Every structure is written in C-alpha cells, then in structure tokens.
Amino acid sequence: MPTTPRHKKTKRVTRSISFSLPTLPFPLASFVHPLRSSASQWLIVPALLTVAFLFRWAVGLGPYSGMGAPPMHGDFEAQRHWIELTTHLPIKEWYWHDLEWWGLDYPPLTAYHSWLLGLIGNYINKTWFQLYDSRGMDDDQLKTFMRFTAILSEYLTYIPAIVIFARVYGKQAGLSAYDRAIALGAILLQPGLILVDHGHFQYNSVMLGFAFLALDCFITDHILWGSFFFVLSLCFKQMALYYAPVVFAYLLGLCVFPRLDIRRLFCLGLVVVGTFSIMLAPLVLFGGVEQIGQCLFRVFPFARGLWEDKVANFWCATNVVIKYKKVFTPETLQRASLAMTLVGILPTCIILFLNPQKRLLPLGLSTCAWSFFLFSFQVHEKSILLPLLPATLLLAGSLSGDTISWVTWMNNVAMFSMWPLLRRDGLALQYAVMMLFYAWLMGTFHNLPQDLPSKAVHLLSYAAILGLHLAEIVVGKLERYPDLWVVGNVVVCFGCYLLAWAWLQKRMWTESLRGKSKAE
Amino acid sequence: MLDSLHPTLTEAAITSVAFKLLLFPAYKSTDFEVHRNWLAITHSLPVKQWYYEKTSEWTLDYPPFFAAFEWVLSQVAQFFDPEMLKVENLNYASPQTVFFQRLSVITTELVLVYALHKLVASAPKGAQRSVAHAIALSLLLSPGLLIIDHIHFQYNGFMYGILLLSLLLARSPSTRLGSGLLFATLLCFKHIYLYLAPAYFVFLLRAYCLGPSFDLRHFNPDIRFVNCLKLGTGILGIFGAALGPFAYWGQLPQLAARLFPFSRGLCHAYWAPNVWAIYSFVDRVLIYVAPRLGLAVDTSALNSVTRGLVGDTAFAVLPEITPRMTFALTLLFQILPLVKLFAKPTFDSFIGAVTLCGYASFLFGWHVHEKAILLVIFPFSLLALKDRRYFSAFRPLAVAGHVSLFPLLFTAPEFPIKTIYTVVWLVVFLTTFDKLVPMSPSGRRFLLDRPSTLFIVVSIPLIAYTSLVHGVVFGDRYEFLPLMFTSSYSAVGVVGSWVGFCWLYFMA
C-alpha cells in the first residue's frame, strides 16, 4: 500500500494485535498474548477483571452451604443472620444474642461489614433480614443479593490488592508487562478462593484483601499504612493471626536492623494500638467495656477440640495411627500443638527478623500460615486458603517453570482437600470445572518440574487424587469404613502439604541467602 | 502454522466450555421443556405420531431431521434419567435432566468448532489467516449463542456450524455441490433457514447449474446438465429422506400446519428490533401527538400500550400491517441483491446476498423473533473484516443485535452474565477487529464511521437505564419502557447497518 510518511494513518499499518508467536508454555499466557502489545495493553487488566468476575458469578449460580438443609443450614445462614442481628439489635447485644443460632463469633469489623450490607439489603427487601422470621430463608433473590455482596466486597478489597501487588512486585522482580498480566490472571482465577467465597459462601476475600493491602504497603515501604491494614484484616477475621508472627517479625526486624530505630517502633505501636482502638470503639462506646471481654471470648473459643471436621493437618492425619483424643488430655494436646506450631513458624520468623526484605514477604506469609495449618488446633479445611494464596502470589515474582509447576500443584492439591466440603455443599460440578479448568489453564501437565524427585512427587500425587476420586465414584461408600475416602483425602493432602511447606521453607532459605550475597 | 495463532481455537473452546458448564444451574426458558418434550415424544412414540402428539402444549414444530436428532439424543438420555422420556411428565427437570440437556447443547456445538476450524484453515496464511482467526474466535465465543443456547436453551450452535460449513464449501467450485446439499440438510433441521434459501438458490443456479458463458441476451443458455442432475437428485434425496415417510402416510398437511403457524401476530411477545419495532414506536409516540394533528386514534389499541409485554401489537394511529405486506416487502428486498448476485456470482457477493436475505426477512418479516438476528450476524461476520467500510457497517449490528437479546433473560442472577459478557465481548472483539481490519480501497472515511461510533456510545446510557435506572426510578411500573427503548434502539442499529451494507453490496 503506497503511504506517505507524514500521513498519520501510516501508523495503522503496523498491526498492534498479533495472534502469532512460537508455542507458549501454557494456555493462560496464550490468552493474554494477543493483547500484549502496547497499543492494546490497556485492555488487559479490565478484561482479566471482567473474566474473573464472570467466573465468580457463574460459580455463584450454584448452591451454597446449607442451602435447603434445616435445621441449622450453614455458613450462608450465619452471614445472613449476622446482617439481621447487626441491623436490628443495639451494639451491646451483638455478641450475646441467641448464641445457639449462629451467634456472632468474628471480630468487630465483620459485624460492621454485616451492618453496612444490611443497610443496603433492607433498602431492597426488608423480608430478607427480619430477626427470627427470616431464619433459614432460601430465597433466590436473597441468594443473588448475598452473592452480590460477596463479589462487591471482594472487588473493593482483595482485587485491588492483588492488582497492585502483581504490578509492583512484578516490576520489582523485573517481570515484563506481559508476564505481570499472566501472573495477575493466574492469581485472579485461583479456584480455591472462588469456590469458598462464591460457592460455599464466606467473605474470606475481605480478610485476605486487607492482609494483601498491607502487603502492598510493605513492599512499597509504607509500613505504617501496612500495619493499619493488617490490623483491619485481624479485625475482620481472627484467622489473619496465621500471618501475624511473620508481620511482627518483619516489622520488628525493620526497627532493629540495620540499626535500632526506636521512633519507628513507637510509631508502629501507636498505629497498631490506635487502629485496634478505633475498631473496638463503637463496641465500648455503645455497649460498655464488658463487650470486649465477650467479643474475645466469642472470637477465641479455647474450649473447642483439636479439630472439628477432617482436615489435612498433622493431628488429623496421624490420628489414623495414634488416637490422640483417647490417649491425651485436651490440655496436653493444646500445649503440644502450640509448641509444634511455634517450632514450625520459628525459622520463617527468624529469617525475616534478621533479614527483613520485602521480597521475602509472600514466602514468609505462606510458610508461617502453613505451619499454623499443619500443627495448630481447631483448623478448618477452608483455612488452607491462608497459606495457599500468598504461595500463589509468588507467581507475581517469577514465572519460571519451577514456580509455576509447584504453585499449580499446591492449588490442585488444595482444591482436592476441599472436596469433602464442596461435595456436601452440592458444588461437585463447580469443583470439577474450576479445578480442571485452572489446572489446564496453568498447563499442569506441560509444566512438571524438571528434576526427577519433584516430578515423581507431582505425578504420584495427581495419580492418588485421580485414584481416590475414581474409587469414590466406582466403589461408593463402604459399610465398614464410611469415612475411608475422606481419610484417604486427608492423608494424601497432608503428605502433599508437608512437601509444599518444605519446598517453600527451602525456597525461603535460598532466596534470603541470594538477597544477602547480592547485598554484599 | 495454524497452531501459532494464540489463543488457539481449542483453547478458546475449552475455556468457553468451562464457563458454559458453570451455567448449568442458570435460568432456562420454556424452550428447555419444549426440547425435553420432544425427547420424550421421539423416544416413546412411533414416528407416525410425532407430529400429532399434543399432550404438552409444546408440540413438535421443527422439521423431521431435528426430530430425528432428538431421537438420537434420547437414546443417550435414557442412561441419565429415563423419567425425562415420558410424554406425560410435563415440566420434568431433575438435575440429571438438566445436566443431560445442557451437556447435549455443549457437545453438539462441537460442529460449530469444527466449522470455525475449517474457516481458519481455509484462509491463506499471513494477515488473512489472522483475520479469519479473529472472526472464528468471535463466533465461537458469541454472546448470542451463550444467551440463546446455553442460558435460554436451544440448539442453534450445531446448526450454525452446519450453515458455516455450507457457506465455506461454496467458495470453491469443486465443493459447491456439497454446499447445496448441506444447506438442504440444514433446512430439514430447522426451517428458519428458509430465509436464506433464495440466495443459495440463485447462487447455485448461476455458479453451479449454469456455465460461465451463460447469456440470455445472446441466447447462449450454457446449462451444465450433469451438475443440475447431481444437485437435483441430491436435494430430492435429502428432502425425500426427511419428508418421504410423512408424505407416504399422508401427513404433509399436518407437518405444514405445525411448521408454519400463520395465526401468530406481527410482532412477537416482545418486539424484535426490526422495521416494525420502529413502526410501533412511532405509533406509540403518535398516540400523544395525533390529537394535536387532528388524526384519528383507535382507542381499542390504547390498552396494548400498557400491556406492551405480551400479545399482539395493535396500532392506534398508523395503518395495520398484514402478513401479505410483510411478505411482499421481504421478497422485494431479497430480490434486489439476488439480481446482483445472478449478474456477479462471486463468493463474496454470495455471502453478501445471504446476509441481505437474512436482513430482509429479519427486518420486514412477520412474527420475527429477536433470536433470528443470528441469521444476519453469522454470515455478516465472514465479511466484517473485508475492509474498514464493512467493519463500520458491522459494528452497529454487533452492538444492536446482541443488546436486543437482553430481554430474553429477565432474572436477576443472569443479569450480570448477559450484560458483562456481552460488553466485554464487544469491547475485546471490536478493538481487535479495529486493529486487524485492512484499509478501505478508497482510503477515505466511510459515511457510516461517525454515526456507528455515536450509536455505540449511546448503548452505554441505554444499558444503564434499562438495567438499573428504570428499576430504581419506576420500580415495577412502566415495564414496557425499557423493552421499547431496547428494541427501538436496536432496530435503529440493525436498520442502519443494513443500509450501510446494502450500499457496499450494490456499489462493490
């Protein structure tokens, strides 16, 4: 085509969208590929966010925990009940009201969040949240509203946090814009959180969102803002305590090395205490000081057992051999689990204290949370999200074959570990689709690790997962061992988690050394 | 290498299947029960009774091949849940039934994937293949099919696959016979494709049955008798296979009555975005203006203003429209492009004529359903990236055609899916197309460039109004307003793109 250079239109001739390139390592990269050139890059993040939204919403079309399951229903009813409770009762009754029916047992920010959602909900339809009258309500409109609140909350907290993280952390690690977009896609479509929050129904993404906003602040050196957000995370769901030791060690490390910085320490303390005070202030102002005691009592149920449901941690898995609950007293077990957890988190905390590098934070959060998951008591299967998501964030720092394969493997195993829960919720279809889709998207079978032992571990665990699923379908429930497949699930997943934890610990160690040698 | 185009068709297909599987619990229209009933009829009754059975109000009203297709499905269905195959089990929708029926839509859509694969593979390497690849991806991920087939529930996917295959076969003279026969088969699946038949007839007549030196003025009837014989016997064979048994039993009048129910009204339950939607809209406006102009208002028609949603539209001021008039108009606007096709029987003008036949029947037809817009969008897509002018005519169609499908789904949970999916599809593919489309040969801007951009911009407040603002301001009152706006707006887009495309077609 004859064109004169001064014509503006000549620019058009160079195509900024191209579908052709040598074979890419995995399908997700292939999807981002046509938009990678600078002219269409603006489309990537909005497109990824909408695709992520569509998958979340589509999962949300399915059932939720306790749907049509009287008398107690499930987590959905708990969340709905907290909305009616906070909008209809004065603050001083929040932590006392009818504790037998899903009494409020989350920290105050969850209560405020419920209250806020209640304001919107009551504006739309008052019958959804009537104290006593709406209990156990299974209404399609209500379900849609609740799904909407879960997604809205996520898009206001978790999603911005990971968009920022993928961008900043990726840049710091020297990733190209194309790789950063792939990493963002991989984190956005992580299936575990989607299924728990939008299938089973919970607001974990808010807690994780605040924690990752804190992480964003830490990696951009806004440590005061970071500690503010981290306290918000703790005030939303006590589960964020799984991250607390690492955050504490990191911040303390920053105050001590390279030289002692009392002022910084003091400011941090002030922010933490101040944020907690603001969070508790409404409780105290409108309900009196005794509310704090009741809140703490509700939030930390020390009286409960070592575990409730079968969960792939040390206690539940080794219980196959040693019947802990028969041999030891609850106090001994609590002490033992506390000791083991402390031993588990110690290496991570020491490394981050002595070598407080922001680069190490995702690894630190993951290993620390994993120690809690594996060794502490009262662990739920959903808690695996806490170690899993920071591990997934590693993709934002590296898209090497090794990282992709291990992170994908962890995600696949974690999905499998939630299978008993999701099956109970009637989410078998959503489970199968999201798990297989994500495994395919990340090129699970293309991207096996290079070294033989790792490869063997991955293949064997996939074989075990497949085998257990097939066995469950073909053989069905056995009369003598009704829990056989669940126990198998727990044992396999525990083994895998232990390895994942070890892999992360090792990586933490090598990464911290690498950083040191660079600094020297 | 075909494989080097990313994302590949396979990758896009896997992703879309994953998403469609998640839509299993979504809303489904009565068409779901329609097809379940057909499964039951074909499975449990002898062929003789297929077109007479009327336990359910959703009687079998598709041609015999589709009935046979349902019979094949029912052979698999019995392993999922035999209860769904009982004619008396009205409105039966066990989880297995939903699973099976939804899954059958996804599975049969593989025909479309195959057709799209052929579309890409048949394009010459280089820029043209990139363009074909983009078109194929856009059709594979079409929001139209997502809304109509995978939520609302129908089996359009595989039939549009057959249509595409047939269109592609028409490109080379050696495969034209296959093209014709495939289209005849398609007609025996769903008779809505009769709308496109005139273009096929003229093209096959001119480019297959007659030779290149055919010229009436110089009395040179260059007839290829062998080709005529092949095509004739082929088509007769196919129609014989489909209709023969019923003709033998003397059931053809019954079939005709089922397949062509002429007793329905001009506009469907809700106005498809065609000329009649604009006509009705003008009539509604005139109700308020007419008294001042001294025009007579038919008061009996006023009631239908508030009904708006259901039933036939009666006109208050403007003259009534009869089926005969719509038929004449449709025929007129089909014949015009066909004359040109006869004079210049190239592949591109064939596709253009198919598109225009679709347009004419959609815009002027009697009792047109909004779903029929796919009859225009699919063939037009093949030409959309011919050059920038075609793309300008395509853009309003893509927007209007898909937006007009929104009222098909009216339940809250499906609302974000239909809107956000469509919007993201439009943004991604219209930008991609915009980057890929070659310059127009004249180099100048096309007359539709600016209006079509303006039209697209207007869709934003429209979607916002119909989906949110109206509900907040009026609640449940004036329900017909958003529908009327949607169909009038879409009608403007479809008519506009038709005018633009006609211009290009006749000037080419």
From TrEMBL, chain A:
Q: TM segments? A: 39-59, 145-165, 177-196, 208-234, 240-258, 265-286, 336-354, 360-377, 384-407, 427-445, 457-478, 484-504
Question: Would the keyword Cytoplasm be found if you checked this record's keyword annotation?
Answer: no
GO cellular component terms, A-Z: endoplasmic reticulum membrane
Which Pfam family, any one, appears in the UniProt record? Alg6_Alg8
- Membrane topology note: Multi-pass membrane protein
Q: Which domain of life is it from?
A: Eukaryota
What InterPro entries does the annotation carry?
Answer: Glyco_trans_ALG6/ALG8 (IPR004856)
| Taxonomic lineage of the native organism | Eukaryota, Fungi, Dikarya, Ascomycota, Pezizomycotina
E.C. number: 2.4.1.-
What organism does the record attribute this protein to? Sphaerosporella brunnea
Its protein name is Alpha-1,3-glucosyltransferase
What PANTHER family does UniProt report for this protein, alphabetically? DOLICHYL GLYCOSYLTRANSFERASE, DOLICHYL PYROPHOSPHATE MAN9GLCNAC2 ALPHA-1,3-GLUCOSYLTRANSFERASE
Subcellular location(s): the record lists:
Endoplasmic reticulum membrane
Q: In which pathway does it act?
A: Protein modification; protein glycosylation
Family in the record: Belongs to the ALG6/ALG8 glucosyltransferase family.
Which keywords does the record carry? Endoplasmic reticulum, Glycosyltransferase, Membrane, Transferase, Transmembrane, Transmembrane helix
| First-tier enzyme category under EC | transferase
GO MF terms, alphabetically ordered:
dolichyl pyrophosphate Man9GlcNAc2 alpha-1,3-glucosyltransferase activity
From TrEMBL, chain B:
Instruction: Please give the pathway this protein is involved in.
Output: Protein modification; protein glycosylation
Subcellular locations according to the entry: Endoplasmic reticulum membrane
Its EC top class is: transferase
UniProt keywords (A-Z) are: Endoplasmic reticulum, Glycosyltransferase, Membrane, Transferase, Transmembrane, Transmembrane helix
Q: Name one GO molecular function term.
A: dolichyl pyrophosphate Glc1Man9GlcNAc2 alpha-1,3-glucosyltransferase activity
Q: Which domain of life is it from?
A: Eukaryota
Has the keyword Signal been applied to this entry?
no
> Which InterPro entries has this protein been placed in?
Glyco_trans_ALG6/ALG8 (IPR004856)
Q: How does it sit in the membrane?
A: Multi-pass membrane protein
Q: Name one GO biological process term.
A: protein N-linked glycosylation
Q: What are its GO cellular component terms?
A: endoplasmic reticulum membrane
Provide the catalytic activity annotation.
an alpha-D-Glc-(1->3)-alpha-D-Man-(1->2)-alpha-D-Man-(1->2)-alpha-D-Man-(1->3)-[alpha-D-Man-(1->2)-alpha-D-Man-(1->3)-[alpha-D-Man-(1->2)-alpha-D-Man-(1->6)]-alpha-D-Man-(1->6)]-beta-D-Man-(1->4)-beta-D-GlcNAc-(1->4)-alpha-D-GlcNAc-diphospho-di-trans,poly-cis-dolichol + a di-trans,poly-cis-dolichyl beta-D-glucosyl phosphate = an alpha-D-Glc-(1->3)-alpha-D-Glc-(1->3)-alpha-D-Man-(1->2)-alpha-D-Man-(1->2)-alpha-D-Man-(1->3)-[alpha-D-Man-(1->2)-alpha-D-Man-(1->3)-[alpha-D-Man-(1->2)-alpha-D-Man-(1->6)]-alpha-D-Man-(1->6)]-beta-D-Man-(1->4)-beta-D-GlcNAc-(1->4)-alpha-D-GlcNAc-diphospho-di-trans,poly-cis-dolichol + a di-trans,poly-cis-dolichyl phosphate + H(+)
Report the EC number(s), separated by commas if there are several. 2.4.1.-
Q: What is its main location?
A: endoplasmic reticulum
- Quick check: keyword Endoplasmic reticulum in the entry? yes
Q: Which stretches are transmembrane?
A: 129-147, 153-170, 182-203, 223-249, 325-343, 349-369, 415-433, 454-474, 480-506
Q: Which Pfam families does the record cross-reference, listed alphabetically? A: Alg6_Alg8
The entry assigns this protein to a family as follows: Belongs to the ALG6/ALG8 glucosyltransferase family.
Function summary: Dolichyl pyrophosphate Glc1Man9GlcNAc2 alpha-1,3-glucosyltransferase that operates in the biosynthetic pathway of dolichol-linked oligosaccharides, the glycan precursors employed in protein asparagine (N)-glycosylation. The assembly of dolichol-linked oligosaccharides begins on the cytosolic side of the endoplasmic reticulum membrane and finishes in its lumen. The sequential addition of sugars to dolichol pyrophosphate produces dolichol-linked oligosaccharides containing fourteen sugars, including two GlcNAcs, nine mannoses and three glucoses.
What this protein is called in its record is Alpha-1,3-glucosyltransferase
Tell me the organism.
Sphaerosporella brunnea
